[in-house]
């Protein structure tokens, strides 16, 4: 499929089948995600896959805020941690948060790679960070930014995309 078709296919799935995701497929989508660009090529992230019994331990932890009830059927998760960015001397750091932008890009790459492989995802920002870090043995100096649910949606048909009007989100400036 072309890129626009892939973008239209990717969505936040909230209805997963009970089919498991193979370890090899998880490895493949994570490897693809890690091709994401980053400031000064610092790659300030660590992606940690949770499958099998570990995924079962994470399910209630991503539901801790009373949200993400659909996660009860999710067979795998990828925790996305922000690590210290190593920028080149002279790179502007005053109000640019490159590592956070880089984490956003690697997350997008992960979700697109998953969609391309026939998987569904949902980016989760509400979870019990302390307990997830404990289960996944994430060091204290790493910030757990997001957890991505990964599995097979019960349907292959994506929902219609609802977006703001073009005038609300873009403009063109000609000189």
Rg on CA atoms, Å: 17 Å
What is the count of structural domains? Answer: 1
- Structural class, please? alpha+beta
CATH architecture: 3-Layer(aba) Sandwich
3D structure, described in words:
By secondary structure, this protein is α+β, with helices and mostly antiparallel strands. The protein has one domain: NADH Oxidase, CATH 3.40.109.10. It has six helices and four strands, in the order ααβαβαβαβα. Strands 1-2-4-3 form a four-stranded antiparallel β-sheet. Helix 2 crosses helix 4. The chain is globular. The relative contact order is 0.24. The model has no long low-confidence stretch (mean pLDDT 91).
Provide a quick synopsis of the model.
This protein has six helices and four strands; from the N terminus they run ααβαβαβαβα. The protein has 175 residues and is an alpha+beta fold.
How are the SSEs ordered, and which strands pair?
Layout: H1 3-9, H2 23-33, E1 45-51, H3 52-58, E2 76-82, H4 98-116, E3 120-124, H5 129-135, E4 143-151, H6 166-169
Antiparallel strand pairs: 1-2, 2-4, 3-4
Helix pairs in contact: 2-4
Structure characteristics:
175 residues; alpha+beta; NADH Oxidase; four-stranded antiparallel β-sheet; 6 helices; globular
């Amino acid at each position: 499929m072309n890129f626009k078709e892939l973008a239209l296919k990717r969505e936040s799935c909230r209805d997963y089948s009970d089919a498991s995701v193979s370890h090899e497929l998880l490895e493949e989508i994570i490897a693809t995600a890690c091709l994401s660009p980053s400031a000064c090529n610092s790659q300030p992230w660590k992606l940690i896959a949770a499958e099998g019994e570990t995924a079962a331990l994470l399910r209630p932890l991503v539901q801790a805020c009373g949200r993400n009830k659909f996660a009860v059927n999710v067979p795998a998760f990828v925790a996305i941690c922000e690590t210290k960015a190593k920028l080149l001397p002279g790179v502007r750091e005053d109000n640019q948060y490159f590592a956070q932008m880089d984490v956003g890009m690697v997350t997008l790459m992960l979700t697109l790679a998953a969609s391309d492989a026939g998987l569904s995802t949902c980016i989760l920002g509400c979870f019990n960070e302390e307990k997830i870090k404990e289960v996944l043995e994430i060091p204290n100096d790493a910030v757990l930014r997001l957890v991505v649910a990964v599995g097979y949606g019960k349907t292959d048909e994506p929902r219609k995309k609802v977006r703001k009007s073009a005038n609300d989100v873009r403009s063109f400036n000609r000189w």
